[in-house]
Design a protein that fits this description.
single chain; mainly alpha; 9 helices; 69% helix
């Protein structure tokens, strides 16, 4: 037998021994990870579910603190659910489904009452955009009677604030998932009254003395309109806006 054959056999034996050691280490590590769900009150099936979930979640890009928080929350919910005979599969579906919902949680359902102030802020910024751009642009439009009428900045802010506070309420009045106290006709009358009050405030704001309601350059209005437009786009994109005009 040649020395080359002997060398090959030794190399193969070492490779097999190394692979066996790697598998042994992996099995040992898996047992350690699995043990964290043993003896904490979970049934064998639920503990196995949590082990598989933890392993699958570990391969995602979710931050470590979020992973740990998700696992701890699930354990507490599962311990509570077991009291009424629930299993992890009953509560969350398959491991893959739960991992997907954890990494990419579904959007919260719309709730105009809960999101009122968020919607009000968005609508106020949106109407600032509309008013700033409107008064900035109409200044440059041709007219036969001299300069175009311009709204002062105080009036713009007041009108936008009233619109921001009122529009979410109007939205709630006609939301299908809310039990309404008044009939549809009374709600329509209330909306008309709101529009009348809004127009009244708009008119009064426009006739405030210049010292309280200074008219700025149309270029400033256009710049402010663009900035507030970017702000409204950001709010719309990053928050669950359910009571917006647009």
């Amino acid at each position: 037998m040649s020395s080359n054959d002997e060398t090959k056999r030794n190399a193969n034996a070492k490779a097999r021994e190394k692979n066996a050691q790697v598998h042994q280490d992996r099995d040992h590590a898996a047992k350690i990870v699995h043990s964290q769900f043993d003896n904490i009150g979970l049934t064998k099936r639920n503990a196995d579910y949590m082990f598989k979930f933890n392993q699958a979640l570990g391969s995602t890009k979710l931050p470590a603190d979020k992973k740990n928080e998700a696992v701890q929350t699930m354990v507490q919910e599962l311990l509570e659910g077991q009291k009424s005979g629930k299993t992890a599969r009953n509560m969350w579906g398959t491991v893959d489904q739960k991992v997907e919902n954890t990494v990419h949680p579904p959007a919260r359902p719309a709730d105009p009452k809960r999101d009122y102030w968020k919607n009000a802020g968005y609508n106020a910024i949106l109407f600032l955009t509309i008013f700033f751009l409107m008064y900035g642009i109409i200044y440059f439009l041709p007219t036969k009677g001299g300069a175009q009428p311009m709204m002062g900045i105080t009036g713009i802010f007041i009108s936008a604030a009233v619109a921001g506070l009122g529009i979410p309420i109007v939205t709630m009045m006609f939301a299908p998932n809310i039990q309404h106290r008044y009939s549809i006709w009374i709600r329509i009358i209330l909306v008309i009254l709101f529009l009348a009050v809004w127009m009244g405030i708009f008119t009064v704001s426009s006739i405030l003395p210049p010292v309280l309601n200074p008219v700025l350059s149309p270029y400033v209005y256009i710049v402010l309109g663009v900035l507030s437009g970017v702000g409204s786009f950001y709010v719309k994109r990053h928050y669950n806006i359910t009571g917006g005009v647009f």
